[in-house]
Predict the structure of Catalase.
Amino acid sequence: MTTNQGVKVSEDEHSLKAGSRGPTLMEDFHFREKMTHFDHERIPERVVHARGFGAHGFFQPYESMAEYTRAGFLQDPNVKTPVFVRFSTVAGSKGSADSVRDARGFAVKFYTEEGNYDLVGNNIPVFFIQDAIKFPDLVHSFKPEPHNEMPQASTAHDTFWDFAANNQESAHMIMWTMSDRAVPRSYRMMEGFGVHTFRFVNEQGRARFVKFHWKPVLGVHSLVFEEALTLAGKDPDFHRRDLWEAIERGDYPEYELGVQMIDEEEEFNFDFDILDPTKIWPEEVVPVKKIGKMTLNRNQDNVFAETEQVAFHPGNVVPGIDFSNDPLLQGRLFSYTDTQLIRLGGPNFHELPINRPVCPFHNNQYDGYNRMTINKGQVAYHKNSLQNNDPRPATEEEGGYVHYQEKVEGRKIRARSDSFKDHFSQAKLFWNSMTEPEKMHMIGAFQFELGKVKSKDVRQQVVNMFSHVDTYLAEQIAKGVGVTMPENAEESKVTASSPALSQENTAKWPQTRKVAILAADGVRAEEVMEVMKAFKSEGVLADVVSTHQGMLKSETNEHVEAHQTFLTADSVHYDAVFVPGGQGSIDQLKTEREAIDFLRQAHKHFKPIGFVNEGAELAQSAGLNDLELEPRKVCEQEGVVCITNAEELTTFNKAFIQAIGQHRFWNRKV
């Protein structure tokens, strides 16, 4: 292996640092060449995170954080700081589907009075690699294979899993991407993380290590993987449409900003290295302090001008926020600006409206591609006398950014700290923290992904790798993909769990959930109207789905409007299904294969289902009885709410709306 200049490379795993836990050095020409080439591989879409969607909003702190940081936007609870957020998938191209199994980008640009601050994160708190020099290798592995450009937006192929098996620091991140976290229900129900370790620095110069969290008010919820696959074909814009429509109707997404903080003197008090980007700080060990809320209340006006041209950079910080020596973060501080130079056509991307700070900015950086500022005068240097040394640097008292004065000692070395070498304990912690349904979903994800890998040797290597995490998990993967368990497999000895990692412990609300009401001519209109009225009072959304759009005639010749048909809507678009009574409606729906399939699919995906009066007959036609527990009937199953008397509608509405808020009923036999 050589550089592009032909110089033989002695090390390609570690960037050059000041000591094994020190910062990355600018003189590392191999790292800069490798990363620069990677940053410029795609024109014009992003190399990663190409498929994105954005929204505007504001952030407001709950209280002053002056004890911890001097950052101005975190001081006054009465101040609203404008923000722009870009959500994205990582692996696919701009034209890929929203619902693919993937990590999601969660990037926030704060337009503060002290300058722009970018919190550039993901919906998963860890990453695949520990050192940024490995990033081009990682991305090359999960992108479509270069010889045939397949598959799109998927890691279910040989090169990714070959990379994983031979770079075992990825074990923890893979556990997350094989979990339900990788198929979110909505951007509005998706957690966000800063991933890296940063620093808060207060006015007195005291620093604390910090990690950032975004906690969605609606809770963290996911699709069933089969739903994700179906949506990729039937509605590839599912997530962006969901976000757009929520903001348009005034259901503004909200996220609480939380921070975990560790005093500098406690840096080495844990059984993991706090600078390792493949590790979390368990919330039960380092609690999350909620410090403010972000509300997204305005859709973008132009996707290209805003979402495509927005330029995020983890190096865009404000006084009071500083960096750590996390080696993945250190590399990103170089890479992001380098990428923007080619993607946005030169050094003036900060002048695009979506990137422009709301505070004044001025310096001696002139000219270049796409310059929009018309600079006046003869002087463009510092120091000068012809212009009274203007602009001049600001003092710390005037708000000038001063880097935290960390003492750094160490030999220049390409190495990683020994404290980074434990790759399996937190992967086991994650596994221990999952409920049984979540574990089954992960096993299915592993079997699907590895089942697409052609090389049996790679499949075997992956099983060998995860036998160090959990024996049962590895056995199930092996069984599904036709390889064997290694002899004398030694799984991780970790027995602890972290309840915060399971989505079953998240907030559960019915608000903004969508319900499909299956109906046809002859439907009992008063039941539909009464239930829809109850839905509206609780913020639940509903569509009437029928054989045709337009007005349906009810039993009493009243009209019920059908919003969707069985061709334009599918069970996977909804969180629950309601079937009202009316013998004529039910008799017609029984003859409609699409209606039967719609109901079966919702039942199969563990969704809440409600039946009123004759509506339950459709369940019998769909064969939804619990065959294993006969003669138990469908209306006695978990998450299925039924009444046979119209006078009980008030009770039904309360029970059904409560079920909608529960999201799924995993114990139901399907």
About this structure: Residues 194 and 287 are 16 Å apart (CA to CA).
